[in-house]
Design goal:
Elements lengths: L10 H19 L19 H13 L4 H22 L4 H25 L6 H10 L1 H6 L2 H19 L21 H15 L1 H21 L9 H26 L7 H32 L5 H11 L1 H15 L13 H24 L5 H11 L8
Helix pairs in contact: 1-3, 1-11, 1-12, 1-13, 1-14, 2-10, 3-4, 3-9, 3-11, 4-5, 4-15, 5-9, 7-9, 7-11, 10-11, 12-14, 13-14
Amino acid sequence: MRDVPVAGRAPAPDLARGAALLLIAVANAHTFITHRGIGVRTYPLDLTGVDAVLAAAQLTLVDGRAYPLFALLFGYGVARLARRAAAAGAGPDAVLALVRRRGGALLAVGTAHAVLLWHGDFVAAYGLLAVALAPLLVRGSAAALVATGTAATTVLALLYSPVALTRETTASASPSLLAPDPWSAAVDRFGEWLFGNLLVSAVGLAGAALAGVLLARAGWLDDPARHRRALRWTAALGVGAGVAGGLPLGLVAAGVWTPSVPAALVAGVLHAVSGYAAGAGYAAFAALVVARAAPDGRVTGALVALGRRSLSGYLAQSVVFVALFPAWTLGLGAGLPLWAATAAGAGVWAATVAAAVLAQRHGRRGPAEVLLRRLTYGRAPAATG
């Protein structure tokens, strides 16, 4: 069974992935800050000035919004993968086996990422979802997708409801960042990932992934010009709900609002649930951009190039962050201002955009994409633009 050439991919999902990696970089950078206390969603305590404004903006627009967007695009990608395989003549069992192989490959890559670099990996969670939910992702009815996604979202909301109450004076929420050597860090990081992140991430991302399957079936991202009206409504309502639901937690992190316990729990639920809406809104906005602008324009083309290499771009972020921030490397995360971490995240993302554009010009895939396809299909794919 042959892979599909990159040139045949719809540009809207890749544009969304490329832009979402900026959100991922910004959202992840602050988790490497140490020795400033642990507040809302691991943002530093007692923020003031520019840092307070940034925390409010990130919790409103970025934090808890980028991962649902990627999960939505993951579900979309699985549905497209299954559709292409079936169109090429694969039977139902072969399609399920292909999806599970892709899931196993993602699980392997994500596990290595978590052990070697960062406990907050989400690639393995996608792999786990593909392996465990392959029948639902490939041939589940709309009713089954909605019901399962709603149940997963409800569990997510309950898990994240207390986040506004977090207030700890410990140096870091992740002991692996404070480890004195890479070996100790790897052991700590494996435990943080396996027992504190993998299953929670899988449950938290399931609802958006299942929504992505419905989006693929609707064809909105494949032909955005044809679905402009629906995309406009989705973008406006989704982003609007994301802002409305994210702002309360942003105000808590910025120190502007100190809610009662019941209000804090509600703020946590709103932030989690509205992140799904924001993810859908951002995906719709990316599709609208493609419908209006040439996908090979200078800016859009650069984002599409990174989106086609999104796994490599994501892993590259962790490589740079780990080189800079933990105690067992340069240790720059100790006492780091939030604005500096944010700038570092944006700078790393910009570097990955430049690298993706260069790879696109030379017709090369990202190294992580080559590995993923080799693990999935058992062969090295040909280079393609």
